[in-house]
Amino acid sequence: MTVFLKLIATSALAIVSIQAWANDSSKNLAKPLAPLDLLSGSCWHGQFAGQEKTDTHCFIPIYGGAHILDRHRVDGGEGEYAGSSVYSWNPKEKRIEYVYFDSHGGVSRGWMKKTETGFSFPDETYLAANGMERIISSRWLVSVDKWVQTARENGRIVWQVTYERKPLSDYPELSMQE
What we know:
Layout: H1 3-22, E1 42-48, E2 54-62, E3 67-75, E4 81-90, E5 95-102, E6 107-114, E7 118-127, E8 133-142, E9 146-153, E10 156-166, H2 172-175
């Protein structure tokens, strides 16, 4: 086999492996991640309050449900914006934590807790690529087919989005189902 054919075969195997890893959309989440079960395995599409921008999130169990990948994209704003979060259980702190990476080079780290009506994300620290830091807290009110996210900075609402559940197949580029 020539080097070129070996390279093609290796690349094809890598693509299939990545898709198999990402398409593990079963609901077999690790027990500590069970609070995210309602969001997992679906995409959520919504519009920012008072704006033309929309936001789409797709929540996908990865590594056999040990983590959840949340890929999102904002459309209709000034330029392209997208990001990915990985939610994981921290056994030492006994809480779900996440790391968020955005298409502009920013990174957030934070944690969440389950509430009676959804989730609370206290004081997430976002560090932009230019070194600017923001502290954002948010609440997610979640029901079977609807999710409302309200984000605050310094006690002031900075955005609010109402999402509706959509199948992963509606957003193959975000759900890695291509």
